[in-house]
């Protein structure tokens, strides 16, 4: 009995501990403590200065989700119809290509685009006589992307087997084509690779070994090198582009190009587009060899030069040239100017003198290493380099938007080079200005240039104020890097204290030359 009473007593005590008495107030709920903490930031908010944000407390707020961008529609790219001109809308291009064309600001086709693209988009071969700056790159690139997008390959592909091959004579042109290709194909998944000598050998080799490539832009020598190593196979090429065939002929690349063309499928099984600035009998024979029933388009060089570029020629002496150049740049506040000379040593000397007057400039010539050339061109494009002094290495394949002036500090020896030089401005229908200096030596090259253009050039005397040379701001310093290298045939700098050839060391009575003593 005592045991039963003890158990009832224990049960009653447990109930008392668990159940609170109704008379006692219930303890404050747990959220009361944070209410004290939340009051502290309000005090601080009164003390903080204007514009100062309160510190975040507790769990961070989830960022606001951005609404997905609306898909681009062709209706957002409105170009009015213009009689006699062809819009890109009229060519039935894929929406990805039209989106990129709208971003680039193109509206109407250039003459070569209007004549070639309606046929090339259907798979026809084409040959064209056209200078750089006529829009031919955009013509064949739009054709390439249209073909790739409408004819996708199903199944697995192997690395190093491109669908499109673009051959160019120089590294600069190959890189320029790659840049244009990335701009036009920015909304596609097509992969591009540039293959050229002088730079990036290991990077190019690894890309060919490991990656699936759709488009290769290449110079002949480096491409053949990779072919010998069996890193690239061209039996799957569907479109072959040969650009500036006349220059490849001049540079002796045609045997290499022929070897490359033979390794692609037969011309009946591929589409070929062949472009050249001039059509010599040799070039026409190559075009006939490598194409089948092509459409042929010719854009005469005088149309390119006269219609889009305002050409001026100043009659000066050799000594007046630099003062005229400097005053033209400073008086008109020119921001992006390409200055051409004929020799590498002239680029160095001219750039050094411009730097003396506080002009931001750089050099582009054959002696500049490839990696430095690329950095220089990018600086010229983005505006960090104001003046680019170059040889004819920049006369072809260089496309920089916004070049307002091309100045021929020395006239080229070849009339065709003159057209290529001034073609760096006034590209694809835009306007530009070409200024040439004709001194007592260069004036002899004007008649062949005028004959090649088909019209005379207006030659004027510059205003006297433009020929006054102000004092330099800085001392003359040699350019750094390769541009400061000693020209061939120059004299070496002697160490301090060394003897020249005309001076000999004093001799002793025995006739032997007096030495310097023990070292």
Sequence-ordered SSE layout with sheet pairings:
Elements lengths: L1 H17 L13 H16 L47 H10 L6 H10 L5 E4 L6 H15 L13 E4 L3 H14 L7 E4 L5 H10 L4 E4 L1 H9 L10 E4 L2 H6 L3 H9 L8 E6 L4 H10 L4 E4 L2 H8 E7 L5 H11 L5 E4 L3 H13 L4 E4 L5 H13 L4 E4 L14 E4 L6 H8 L9 E7 L7 H8 L5 E2 L59
Helix pairs in contact: 4-5, 5-6, 8-10, 16-17
- Number of helices in the DSSP assignment: 17
Task: Specify the biggest β-sheet.
Answer: 7 strands, parallel
Shape: globular
* Uncertain segments: 17-27, 29-47, 481-519
β-strand percent reads 5-15%
Helical coverage, percent range:
25-40%
Structural class: alpha/beta
Distance separating the two termini = 122 Å
State mean pLDDT (0 to 100 scale): 81
Radius of gyration, Cα only, in angstroms?
36 Å
For the secondary structure, the number of strands is: 14
Quick structural overview:
The chain has 519 residues and is of the alpha/beta class. Residues 17-27, 29-47 and 481-519 have low confidence and may be disordered. Helix 15 (370-382) links the parallel strand 10 (361-364) and strand 11.
